[in-house]
Automatic annotation (TrEMBL):
InterPro entries: Amidohydro_3, D-aminoacylase_insert_dom_sf, Metal-dep_hydrolase_composite, Metal_Hydrolase, Metallo-dep_Hydrolases_sf. The keyword Signal applies. Keywords: Signal. This is Amidohydrolase family protein. Residues 66-339, 412-487 form the Amidohydrolase domain. Pfam families: Amidohydro_3 (PF07969). It comes from the Bacteria. Coiled coil: none annotated. Residues 1-23 form the signal peptide.
């Protein structure tokens, strides 16, 4: 019997990479949180190839690799149900910010944003896989771009809706999880409810889901939520609120009322759920707080900087027209320009829009905005029907991409005691899988895929901040994807066993 203890010996890692990962492996001594929400148990877990084959009181087989994990927690790999980590086309396929948090699957195509027909997106990943698994929605913005082109600042005609439905149906047949919308962004902001319902019906016909960055996350929040619930009620499709938040100062403290309305909708039979990330600040475009898209309206700018955020709370993450502004706030730039922050806000947008017009298709700007109350975020995290996500991007100044899942354990389990360890793990594993429609993932259970993590429950924590957004989480001991070790001894192993997961795939 080959046996080694944690941390892994370099020779053992080399053996795994040499091909012995396909022989059975037995993990002994860990406290197993199976992803169901049940308390941790002292049981052994055996996996063979890419599948868990036994859980219980097990003894090593002759010649089997044995991992002795006393003092560690064993859980299913975390599933990031709302991710933008595909941006950059997996330049570093090892994805260390994700592996250090125990993320083994990301779900992309979010906020209405996907790049190509689903079959092509899948084929591109399968030709050059990463260390983690990927699944995807079809973006409403992609559909509108394909059918309406540059003439998108209007509602679609019946013929155009039918053309979008045909594209959506093809993606569903290819394995898309469903339809995602980004209704605060171009081009989705110009769609009407009839267009969304038609596309949702097409999606529902093939068993897909609907996930939405709603039309408004601040003062118009309730109307936007009512639209999402109505789409679910009219079509029967499961509907999910993307990164649920209350982004208006005057509405802070109302999370419980929002959750009551969601519970009431569920009681009526609407299959509504939510995902949430554990931060009080978002990342988006400078224009997102202007629903009327009038970037000359000084009163709208003043309103945004007093009711929705503050000049000090708007930090430029990326600004192509003037990279020196990156890492600075609107308040700081306004002080340099000796003008009121609202005027600077408009000037920044106008300059960015001019740059965008001169450089079509290139990334132009993004901003981190502080606009949520910690108590509201905690209430959303604790709702039984919410799962955790990151909404993260590799290389972003927002720390959520490198910290969200570790922060969940540090803050809400160890420090605030809002969740038990078992509840938190459920929200990052089986509940996420259920909410996006992934089968055979998210549980430590016989027959499920061997996406597994070992971590220290007392030290697992985030280190990423706005100042150090790429700082890796600590306390993750080992990450296994489809039966292969992809992270050990504090670093990726260089294995790339990730798969592109499709709806309905066993």
């Amino acid at each position: 019997m080959r046996a080694f203890s944690i941390p892994l010996l370099a020779t053992a890692t080399a053996l795994l990479l040499a091909g012995t990962a396909h022989a059975s492996t037995l993990i002994l001594g860990a406290t197993v949180y199976d992803g169901s929400g049940a308390p941790g148990r002292q049981v052994a877990v055996r996996y063979d190839g890419d599948r868990i084959v036994a859980v219980g009181r097990l003894k090593p087989h002759k010649g089997e690799t044995v991992v002795r994990a006393r003092g560690l927690a064993l859980a299913p790999g975390f599933i990031d149900s709302h991710s933008h980590h595909d941006r950059g086309n997996y330049a570093d396929r090892s994805m260390p910010p994700l592996l250090a948090q125990g993320v083994t699957t990301i779900v992309v195509g979010q906020d209405g944003d996907s790049d190509a027909p689903f079959a092509r997106v899948a084929a591109d990943f399968e030709a050059r896989p990463a260390a983690i698994n990927v699944a995807s929605y079809t973006g409403h913005g992609y559909l509108r771009d394909a059918v309406l082109g540059k003439d998108f600042k209007r509602t679609a005609t019946p013929a155009e809706i039918a053309a979008m439905q045909a594209l959506m149906e093809a993606d569903m047949k290819a394995g898309s999880l469903g339809l995602s919308t980004g209704l605060e962004y171009d081009p989705g902001i110009y769609s009407d409810r009839a267009e969304l319902i038609a596309l949702a019906r097409t999606t529902a016909a093939d068993g897909g889901r609907y996930i939405s960055h709603m039309r408004n996350e601040d003062l118009g929040f309730q109307g936007a939520l009512d639209e999402l619930i109505d789409i679910g009620a009219q079509t029967g499709i499961p509907v999910q609120v993307s990164h649920i938040k209350i982004g208006a100062v005057d509405r802070w403290g109302t999370a419980k009322a929002v959750l009551a309305s969601l519970d009431a909708a569920r009681a009526r039979g609407v299959k509504v759920t939510a995902d949430v990330y554990p931060y009080e600040y978002w990342q988006s475009t400078l224009t997102v707080l202007f629903p009327k898209r009038d970037f000359t309206d000084i009163e709208a700018a003043r309103f945004a900087l007093t009711k929705l955020t503050t000049p000090e709370g708007m930090l430029l993450d990326f600004y192509a027209p003037e990279p020196a502004f990156e890492g600075r706030t609107i308040a700081q730039i306004a002080a340099d320009r000796k003008e009121e922050p609202a005027a600077t806000y408009l000037w920044l947008i106008q300059r960015a829009e001019a740059w965008r017009a001169a450089h079509p298709g290139q990334r132009t700007e993004s901003v981190i905005g502080t606009s949520m109350a910690p108590q509201d975020v905690a209430d959303f995290v604790a709702w039984p029907e919410s799962n955790l996500c990151s909404d993260g991007v590799v290389g972003s100044r927002h720390p959520r991409g490198a910290g969200a899942f570790a922060k969940m354990i540090r803050l809400y389990v160890r420090e605030q005691h809002r969740l038990t360890m078992a509840e938190a793990i459920r929200k990052m594993t089986s509940l996420s899988a259920e909410h996006v429609g992934l089968a055979g993932r998210g549980r430590v259970k016989q027959g499920y895929k061997a996406d597994l993590i070992l971590f220290d429950p007392g030290t697992f924590a985030d280190r990423a901040t706005v100042q150090t957004p790429g700082a890796l989480a600590v306390g993750m001991n080992r990450v296994i994807v489809n039966g292969q070790t992809v992270y050990a001894d504090g670093k990726p192993t260089g294995a790339f066993p990730g798969r592109f997961l499709k709806r309905g795939q066993p």
